[in-house]
Amino acid sequence: MKQPIIALIDCNNFFVSCERLFRPDLDTRPVVVLSSNDGCAVSRSNEAKALNIPMGAPAFKYKQLFKDNGVAQFSANFELYGDISERITNLLATITPHIEVYSVDESFLDLSELDINDYDEWGRAVRASLLKHVGIPVSIGIARSKTLAKLAADRAKKQPELGGALSFINKPQEDIDLYLAKAGVQDIWGVGWRLAPKLRAEGVATALALRQFSSKRASQLMGVHGRQLVAELNNINCHTLERIQKPQTTITRGRQFGMDTSELSVVESAIASLGARAAARLRRGEQLARGAAIIIRTNRHKPGYRALTKSVTFVTPTSDTGTICAALIKAVEELFNSHEQYHKADVMLFDLLPNDALQLDIFDQQARPAGHEASRARMAAVDRLNDRFGKGHLIYAAERLSNAWRPRHNLGSPRYTSAWDDLPEARVV
Q1: Which of 109, 322, 336, 377 is most buried (most C-beta within 10 Å)?
Q2: pTM of the shown model
Q3: Is pLDDT above 70 for 362?
Q4: CATH number among 3.90.550.10, 1.10.150.20, 3.40.640.10, 1.25.40.10, domain 184-244
Q5: Sign of the torsion formed by the C-alpha atoms of 185, 187, 193 and 195
């Protein structure tokens, strides 16, 4: 049996790179992408990092620094980022079908079946291809385990002389150890800020020290996860590629409001919109929900913080937007207090099952086969129209009760790749 060879493709400062793709004038300027309500930095260019702007930096606290240093700011444009991510995945799939999309900006590839002589050169060639055909810079790490591949990619990102790719395959262990000695224990995949203090207390401050750490002691400190970490750093792969996406167990959609509100219609509109988005995601996964829940919150940074929750159960599992939103809006009406100022809402669909596992209740008029099939056909038509003409083209009226809840998005870039109206125009004179 062949030993696994795993490559991690990690997009550099992904959200910023997507913004720069259509704004080459920003290539050397510091750039930050901001979260919901233009609140905090969720992606930073290398130039912004050099200004000591941390991840999660509140924009209002860094307003003067942004102004003094010409920092370009963007509201997060997730529709654009998702489309660019899909383009990258499609290109990677032409290299090998053995791919795991780990996140919007990271993918693992299994290279075990590919005939590659020089993995460093292969990585640089793939990086050049992605830069040419998609326009996004990436860092590539190649190793026998996912943990080592992530460390290699991180080192390739930090050392420009590596050309954006680093392979630990066919390298002497002492050479690999030199790279591991440069990686802090907090930078190891699966360690982070929670487990790092425990390991430092044991004298483990680097990835190299953890590779040489006692597997038994690691297990005592961190359970099975600790033993696997040590094994992965010693070229023993413990995490195989998940090529088939696991069915979701819950679907959650939430949003912080553009401004606090005590208007029922505003909260109802938010819940209807979030419920519709969750239901659409449910249908894409070919699933049904047995239950749904809402959470409406006041501002946790103000006195009297409250989080109110209510759940509903469907007699027959459903993915019908109308059914789900009607139940959620009724739940909101029961919870709502006009004397409160609401700051955020969340919707969750839970107890999910596949479409083909549905058992209809013969005593429920709406759940009889004819009613269920009519619901599925109606939702399929809605989804087709929205896919063809754009997300939100056909919606339920409750979603338009108010727009006052929608987050501030004052610095948004055009949806260059997914909206005709946002395409740049060229004038020939």
Answers
A1: 109
A2: 0.79
A3: no
A4: 1.10.150.20
A5: negative
